Every structure is written in structure tokens, then in C-alpha cells.
Amino acid sequence: LDLDTAKQELEEFIPHVRKMSDSSIRKMAGRDLTRFKRFKKQGIAIKFGRFSQKENDQIKKNVEEFLSLTGIENAEKLLFTSRYPEEKETISRLKAEFLFCGKIAEGIPRPWRLIYYRARKIFDPNNYKGRYTKDEKEKLKKYYAIHGNDWKKISEMMSRSNLSVAMKYSEIKSAINYGPWTKEETRKLMRAVEEVITKRSKLEDEKSSSEKSRRNLSIDREKLYQKLPWTEIEAKVGTRYWRQCKQKWTSILTSKMTKGQQLYKGTKGLQAKINLIKRLYEMKVEDANEVNWEELSNAIGDVPRAYVQAKFYKLKVSCVPFWQKKTF
């Protein structure tokens, strides 16, 4: 397909496709468009966000079947071929011959690139190595000073995954305050969020006020808590890790949206928990990632989805023994 046609056809499945680079669009047209159309015929929507347990299991199945088909020794050699320079040519030939891209994505209604990254995360033996020691943290700072954002190189030097070293550096790069938020920190956070939302709004095509419906206004409000660039906000605040910024912003929004009411106190709090559990049960989903948290927030009140997810997590870990070993 020519580029304009590819953009037009992909836009049905990826609404933000025109914001992507031309090379990414060409790759997606080759790897994903036929798959997306096939899923559409089956009435299956293309998904984004966190992978469900069912999808993770499908990825594992796809990888194991490809290893069996090609005789490649293990998933690390398949997904991290550059770690094995002596075998790289043979493995690359087998991947091309047996259509690796199509096989690994089989049965999963997501863009191929996201499936591939998820597979690498699942099968990277360097991905789950516990807490960083003091010595490792010092090494990470030193390697970053030399190599900058070359996380691939740094991950190889530290025998940790790319994501792990990038996230850990974000956490340790400056003095992080773990105590109560000061008024000045809160002001910095609110200013930082305002700046990134304003910048984003300027880049988007603004509709005239006469065209804005109630639905448009609701979408505008969602910009206050959905898909914010937290690492950028972290840099603007300066004294807090990005997760702390996200949690604090959710807390501020919840207070504003509920006019300061304490939703989880006393009898009201118990009733809210009961409502949340009942609504979760009524949804009949198999995995927490299939829950429509936006819709579920109505079970508690007019609150951000992150607030509801956090409350569900606290209920789960405090009330369900051995919850990690149980299905949803």
C-alpha cells in the first residue's frame, strides 16, 4: 500500500496513527493490517493497555510452538538474538523462513510491536532479579554518566533488563523525598500538569465552542488523568518519583471531583467497598485487565479510574489470602 492509503486503512483500528512516523506506519501496514481486518471479521476489537493473563499465556504458547517448529534452543536466543553473535545468522534465517512476526502474534488482537515487547519482557532472564543493591545503584549512575540513555548497552553491562535499568535510574537520579508533600511541591505538581496539558491541547485541532457537546466536555476532563507524561512531570517537580506524582495527582483530583468528601470513611466507606465488589462480580470478566474502570468508578462516585483501581488493589491484598495464586 502507498503511505496515504495505509494511514487511511489503519486509522479505523489505530485512531492516533497519523501522529506516528512514516516508517512506523509502513511497518504496521505490513505486519498488522491484514491481522486487524481478520479480527474485525470475527467481531474482535484491537486492544491496548495492560496485557491480560490469557494474552500472556497465548504469547508463551506462540513462542514455545515457534521454538518447537524451528529447533531454536530457547526463548532468550529467539528474542535476544544479539546476545548470541555466533548463532545470529542462523537464528535470523530461521525466523525469516518460518514467519516469526506472524507466528508470535497469532490469536492476539494487538499491534505486533506491543506483542513483541511483551514477549521480550516475559522471557528476559534479566527481568526479575529482585532489589538493586547499593553497589548496583552506584554502577548504574556511573554507566549513565558514560552512556546516557543507551539503556540497551547499560542493561547488558548490569545483566538487568532495559526497562528495569531505565525505571531504576528514573528513581535514583535525584534526591527523592518520601515524606508528606509540602505546599511548594504540590504547587509544582499542579503547575507541571497544567503545562503538559496546555502543550498537548495546543498541538491538537481545537473545535469551536459551539460544536462541543456534553460528551466532548467529558473527554476534555479525562485529559486531567489519562495518559499524562509522568516522567516529564517528574522532571518538572524535581523532588518526587513519577509514581508519587501520579498518586498525589489522583488524590488531588479525587478531592476536587468529590468536593472533599471522604468516600472511604465509616459506613459510607463499607457500602462503597460492597458496591465495588458487587459491580466487579456482575461484570463476569476473566481478568482484571478486561475491567472497564471508567464505568466502574460510578460504583463509588465521581472519581478518577486510578482511584478505583487503587481501592480494588488494597481490598485484594488485605482481604484475600494468597491472592497472587488465585485467578481473578
TrEMBL record:
A Pfam family the protein falls into: Myb_DNA-bind_6
Molecular-function annotations in GO: chromatin binding
A biological process from GO: termination of RNA polymerase I transcription
PROSITE patterns registered for this protein in UniProt: MYB_LIKE
SMART domains: SANT (SM00717)
Domain annotation Myb-like: ranges: 124-172, 173-253
SUPFAM superfamilies given in the database record: Homeodomain-like (SSF46689)
InterPro entries in alphabetical order: Homeodomain-like_sf (IPR009057), SANT/Myb (IPR001005), TTF1-like (IPR053078)
Gene Ontology CC: nucleolus
UniProt-recorded name of the protein: TTF1 factor
Organism annotation: Casuarius casuarius
